[in-house]
Amino acid sequence: MIFPARILRIPRPKTFLYLMSLRTGTELSTLSLLLNKVSGLYGLLALLTGLHLSPLQLSMYIYSLFALLTTVFLAPHIRTQSPFHCLALATFYILDSIVNAVYTAAFGITWFLVISQHHSDANGNKAPGAGGKMISDTAGFTNPEFNVSHVDVAVGPDQGVPGGKSEAVTSGFLGSPATTAASPSLGHGVLQPESISSIVAICALWAIRVYFVLIVMSYARLVLRKYVASTPRTGTGGKSSGLIDDPFALHLLEGKGWRGRLGRAMISLGRGYWLGSEEGDDAWTNDEVAMGRIRRKEPAQVAGDAPGVVERERRRRSGTGPPPPMPQLQGGQGQHLRVHEVRDGK
Questions:
Q1: Which of 117, 211, 321, 329 has a CA positioned 20 to 30 A from the CA of residue 244?
Q2: How does pLDDT run across 323-340, given as a tens digit for each residue?
């Protein structure tokens, strides 16, 4: 079955939640990324308390610290609308999402293996998976000192009178999990009742993350198109190719030096998305022109139009024309002057 190309293309939202602009959505998405990466700093500080970390956990905290510094460097350029920095932020957001997905999958598998070990017959001392020991120790319920379902207390003949002799007899019954397995496995851990809520929460958070990625990408795409609209045409794109001009062309200011090479490399990863033209793109540019954020060059005057007439018409439409004539000129003399003015304009 062949699907239309429009259905398979990457979504390109034009607003954030249909309420705010893409710039506001990008700022909120970047703020959520900053809050997420601050955990790397606290994770490294936990080493000072003697907390044991696996190599996988240590690498995640070091990467989070690097991602925090990178985001802090790129975030201020959202308002300045720098093509290079906005494109770099979008590319980094995509790469960070991929790295986070790998870490989430690794730690998620470990967590389900620990849950499976808790509900299995083979309760060993070593928790399976990367970082399983720390997860098992932190969870607490996976390796309790006494595994009983309930305790019965029987008091002696003195019924616990103060000063008297009393005897207490306790008896416990070993708790039996609802479902057990011979050995820990990923499938067994996923099927546990407490695992369903974890999977639902992870899927919901990742749906929000994917939407944030689309918002940041759409804003970077808009910034690139605004930059191309405000610069002379370079001839590297056109309607025939379906692409706009490359903002990082060699002869442009943004295409010089290492920033130009890196910009062209980032563009090449998704040239059809960043530079592709589609219906609705001009509407974004027209909105920016109407708000005065983009200055388009005025079209060339027709040979038959007199400069004075065009200038007066422009001033009349903008409301900056000359003041109205004096009252003594409102009669026949004023009419005579207006006729001569029109003739001179022709």
A1: 211
A2: 666 666 555 554 554 445
DSSP letter for each residue of 78-141: HHHT-HHHHHHHHHHHHHHHHHHHHHHHHHHHHHHHHHHHHTSS---SSPPSTTHHHHHHHH-T
Measured CA distances, 65 to 40, 51, 60, 72, 105 (Å):
5, 18, 9, 11, 20
User: Which of 262, 259, 270, 264 is closest to 214 using CA atoms?
Assistant: 270
Provide DSSP, 236-281: S-BTTTTB---TT-TTSGGGSHHHHHHHHHHHHTTHHHHHB--TTH
d(CA 274, CA 91): 11
* Amino acid found at 35: L
Q: What is the pLDDT of residues 265-318, one digit of tens each?
A: 999 998 889 988 765 555 555 545 444 454 544 444 444 445 555 676 777 676
Helix, strand, or coil here: 233? coil
Residue 142: closest CA among 159, 117, 121: 117
Question: Distance (Å, rounded) from C-alpha 130 to C-alpha 135?
Answer: 9
pLDDT of residue 296: 47
Cα dihedral angle (321, 326, 332, 336), rounded to 10 degrees?
Answer: -40
pLDDT at 230: 84
47-56, 79-88, 213-222, 314-323 — which is least confidently predicted? 314-323
Q: Tell which phi-psi region holds residue 23, choosing left (phi > 0), alpha (psi between -120 and 50) or beta.
A: alpha
